């Protein structure tokens, strides 16, 4: 039976027509999805500019669904999750990016950097440390080292923090000399708590030679020497602070008086404080220290009067009144208690970075975690 080729005359046009129709449908679908992705992307930007993070996240999720190869959308989405505090979803987004085999080396480093910050914000310090360590030697090296320094500080790993601060010193982030001195002081404090005063002393004596501009190093050295019964050594450390960091004399005015009394050097400390008071704005702490060095009460009160002539101070006025009888036995304790209560907020120290106030002086702010953000003056004197 001969083969009939006439059916090809019908099959070829039909196949061509079906192929053309299928291509048109695919092209239409591709164009439709292409239009949806930009719309969702721009809608997300609109919500983001209007600080509508929830709506922006929904729009970006839709855009990623239509264009799963767009790495920038993943970065934007992960950043939004992190800003919102949804760290678990941010981690998933950036881990999904890292799992892609077609990601370029630059984008992979960027995703690793974003993932490390997710862990840091979430408080997962061990995972953050591992993630930032993987970025050492990359274009994110300086930022990774700075983040690792923060991780070590939060974990109170002061030895590694000091080593990292030393590698960062003098780089693009500036000087870390004073920050490293804080780390050494924290190490010395830990040694003191363990009863290893000799090691703490050696550590601090080396540090003040290396960073004489660190007020905390001198203060901590004085405390260690005092704990070892070295009254003269403690006084010498505080006198050295007055020479190298005169701005912090109000902070150590009372310890200076105590060290002077133990060493029999009251006159030397009196002269130092008087000279400081002549060259600097009035300080209640310095005035009170000078008043405690006077031999009679009337001379001490004159110190407060002189302070009030230079600067009005409720704290100084209250200290002056403490040595003056008011003449009314019934009202006197009430008046003194009211004045004392009114003075208490003025005696606090305030962080210059975040405004956190505290009764004691902090080298490391509990509020913003900043170093040396507390001025050595009290709130009333700022």
UniProtKB/TrEMBL annotation:
Topological relation to the membrane, as annotated: Single-pass membrane protein
A single cellular component GO annotation: cytoplasmic side of plasma membrane
Stretches of the chain found on the membrane's Cytoplasmic side: 24-382
Keywords, in A-Z order: Cell inner membrane, Cell membrane, Iron, Membrane, Metal-binding, Repeat, TPR repeat, Transmembrane, Transmembrane helix
Presence of keyword Transmembrane helix: yes
Gene3D superfamilies, alphabetized: Tetratricopeptide repeat domain (1.25.40.10)
Primary localization: membrane
Binding site for Fe cation: 351, 354, 365, 368
Pfam family membership, one: TPR_19
Top-level taxon: Bacteria
One MF term in the entry's GO annotations: iron ion binding
InterPro entries (alphabetical): CellSynth/LPSAsmb/PSIAsmb, LapB, Rubredoxin_2, TPR-like_helical_dom_sf, TPR_rpt
Subcellular localization(s) per the UniProt record: Cell inner membrane
Function: Modulates cellular lipopolysaccharide (LPS) levels by regulating LpxC, which is involved in lipid A biosynthesis. May act by modulating the proteolytic activity of FtsH towards LpxC. May also coordinate assembly of proteins involved in LPS synthesis at the plasma membrane.
NCBIfam families reported for this sequence: PRK11788.1-3
Record family assignment: Belongs to the LapB family.
Name used for this protein in its record: Lipopolysaccharide assembly protein B
Organism whose genome encodes this protein: Tepidimonas sediminis
Gene name as annotated: lapB
